[in-house]
């Protein structure tokens, strides 16, 4: 246990001083604000609702999605698409760079056990995901309160239950994609190749498979349970349950029920972690 704690503290120190972490965090906050608030607010003020998540929505609906009561749902809207891709990059970089720099070889031959060292990396990445979700929640709530004040609307804060549902959804979705990035980084032993293959899968392959699933029924059975489908379905279920504004948002689906999506995400998260740990413990690092 002491070795795991020491490895976690060392990995947290490395990640805190790694520019890549702060760049990805800044990109996420920027994209989250842009697609969650800026474009919708422009559409509301100009009356030009032509975006993918604004088409067909009245100005009253657009404003409702920008107010504090909708902040929990808005928080999760971008997670199935660019949020998942960003944390996958972080997972692949954190693990794959250790192979490129030779640090895994040094740690595994001179430091704690492989399980403790790799567990420290996983714990540090989990801390990154938790921090990202919490920071986003605070930023979204602050921006939505500002919009409510500017538009002269009442500041009705979301209930604790709404926040717990949104934070749980965010942690599960982003945690699953971070674990996927870790597995890709272990498999490729290269940060660049791991990031590239992960993004191709998350942003291209899954969408192409969904495109052909209407032609071949067996493929539909597979695409309905892919990681991206499960993540999008959980966010879609949250949006529906809280009367949110997820309809039409890229990456948000209603393919699976909320319970089924949680189950599949938990399976993928556990499976990615266990497989990555097994590979790290058994493979030669030379």
TrEMBL record:
Coiled-coil residue windows: none
TM region(s), chain numbering: 20-39, 81-104, 116-143, 163-184, 191-209, 261-280
Keywords: Membrane, Transmembrane, Transmembrane helix
Organism domain of life: Bacteria
Protein name per its UniProtKB record: ABC-type transport system involved in multi-copper enzyme maturation permease subunit
Biological source species: Petropleomorpha daqingensis
């Amino acid at each position: 246990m002491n070795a795991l704690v020491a490895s976690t503290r060392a990995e947290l120190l490395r990640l805190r001083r790694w520019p890549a972490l702060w760049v990805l965090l800044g990109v996420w906050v920027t994209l989250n604000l842009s697609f969650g608030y800026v474009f919708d607010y422009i559409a509301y003020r100009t009356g030009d609702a032509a975006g993918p998540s604004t088409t067909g929505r009245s100005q009253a609906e657009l404003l409702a999605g920008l107010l504090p009561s909708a902040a929990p749902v808005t928080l999760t809207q971008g997670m199935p698409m660019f949020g998942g891709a960003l944390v996958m990059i972080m997972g692949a970089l954190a693990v794959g760079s250790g192979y490129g720099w030779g640090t895994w070889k040094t740690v595994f031959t001179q430091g704690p056990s492989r399980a403790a060292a790799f567990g420290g990396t996983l714990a540090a990445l989990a801390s990154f995901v938790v921090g990202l979700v919490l920071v986003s929640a605070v930023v979204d709530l602050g921006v939505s309160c500002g919009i409510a004040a500017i538009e002269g609307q009442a500041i009705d804060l979301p209930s604790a239950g709404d926040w717990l549902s949104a934070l749980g959804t965010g942690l599960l979705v982003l945690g699953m994609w971070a674990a996927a990035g870790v597995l890709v980084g272990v498999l490729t032993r290269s940060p660049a190749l791991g990031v590239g293959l992960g993004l191709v899968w998350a942003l291209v392959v899954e969408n192409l498979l969904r495109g052909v699933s209407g032609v071949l029924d067996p493929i539909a059975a597979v695409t309905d349970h892919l990681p991206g489908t499960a993540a999008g379905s959980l966010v879609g279920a949250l949006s529906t349950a809280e009367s949110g504004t997820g309809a039409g948002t890229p990456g948000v689906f209603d393919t699976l029920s909320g319970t089924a999506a949680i189950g599949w995400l938990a399976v993928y998260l556990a499976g990615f972690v266990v497989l990555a740990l097994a590979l790290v413990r058994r493979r030669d690092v030379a």
